[in-house]
Amino acid sequence: MNESRIANRPVVMVDVSDKQSQHRMSRASGKIYMKPETIHAIHENQVEKGNPLAVAQVAGILAAKKVSELIPLCHQIPLSNVDIRFFPAENHILAECSCVSDAKTGVEMEALTAVNVALLTIWDMVKYLEKDKKGQYPHTRISDIIVIEKRKE
């Protein structure tokens, strides 16, 4: 592959100035796998730093609002709603986020970013419970980050 062509290619933001604003909604989800004991500690409100799900919910909402600052070519869009919910299971917690906006471009990056930051926040708050004797995380992983749905009306 010719490296000089790649290096000289300009970086551009997609021009949406001729597009009409539309009502848009995106939903994304992802999972954090943890030890069952950690999930039990979360459920029983026994995590030293406090309630990981409440903090993760706020962190995810804040992340959705800051996507254009985090991802260089994303447009800044007005969010009218960000909703993050958690669904605990035996060895993981599923996070699901929906974002709504009336804008010229979609909100899937906002939903994906919110899910990722929410899951990272959970990990940060429970990492002391997840570490093994060597300081590693053999049971902890974030996976299955997907866009479940994307709509515009």
Describe the structure.
The protein is an alpha+beta fold and 153 residues long. It is 35% helix and 30% strand. It has five helices and four strands; from the N terminus they run H-E-H-H-H-E-E-H-E. Strands 2-3-1-4 form a four-stranded antiparallel β-sheet, covered by helices on one side. A hairpin with a 3-residue loop joins strand 2 and strand 3 (92-103).
The ordered H/E elements are: HEHHHEEHE
Low-pLDDT runs of 5+ residues are: none
Overall pLDDT metric? 94
Stated plainly, the CATH topology is called Alpha-Beta Plaits
Which features does this protein show?
globular, 4-stranded antiparallel beta sheet, 153 residues, Alpha-Beta Plaits, 35% helix, 4 strands, 5 helices, alpha+beta
Task: Please describe the topology of this protein.
Blueprint: H1 3-7, E1 22-33, H2 36-43, H3 52-65, H4 67-70, E2 79-88, E3 92-103, H5 108-130, E4 141-152
Antiparallel strand pairs: 1-3, 1-4, 2-3
